[in-house]
Amino acid sequence: MIIYGVVNASPDSLNADSIATDAESAVARARELLAQGADAIDLGGQGSTDNATVVPWQDEWDRLRTLVPALAELGVDLSVDTWRPEVARRALEAGATVINAADGMQTDAMWQVAADFDCPIVVPFLSGPNPREMQHVRRDPVEAIVEFFEHRLSDADRFGMRHRCIIDPGTGFAPSNWPWEERYLYQKRVYSNLHELRRWDLPIYIALPWKDTPQHWELMEIVLRQQPEYGRAHYPDRVRAVERRLGL
Which of 44, 133, 223, 225 is close enough to 81 for a disulfide, judged by CB 3.0 to 4.6 Å? Predict the structure, then answer.
């Protein structure tokens, strides 16, 4: 599995270890992630959780402006995690190589950016227009996810970009106001049925659990046993350790 290690330029990320707000600390964080077993870096400048302050896209880009070229010099793939086409375009111009589309590629503007750069696109399932406006999935989440991707891949076809899509079931974006037990059952249902997402013959990407609880470790094992092509991790060494234990 190719792992994207997480660097967050947003100061209100839930994972304090991932926060790096200047180029020097971002490069240091990235080098640490690569040493722990990451293959690439995922960089975000706008938090998506309820506690994150939403800033204008110009401020989001200001957070990333010096970090993108500095991280690009490491010579590994660099994804930009954003729901704003203005930020995605500038990041790709500055050296990013992948769009991690926090809007679920639900606008033509984001598809146009991807098409202009002919770059890979991580397309996450969202039950709303962006991570801050998620709604409860009131029916089987696997069915909802499959339906969502049928629509998104139809959009991709209009731009000739289906072959560049990487499918992300987006369980990391399950509405944060759900009690954890409901989130756990939701994620377990989705992670246990990743085979349903193989119908499009596209690679799968998972935002891997990072909290240290028995249920999070269980979810990690469920995911890794199904061998998705890509993962996003705050602690790559933990993921690699589970892979070794499972003989993967």
Answer: 44
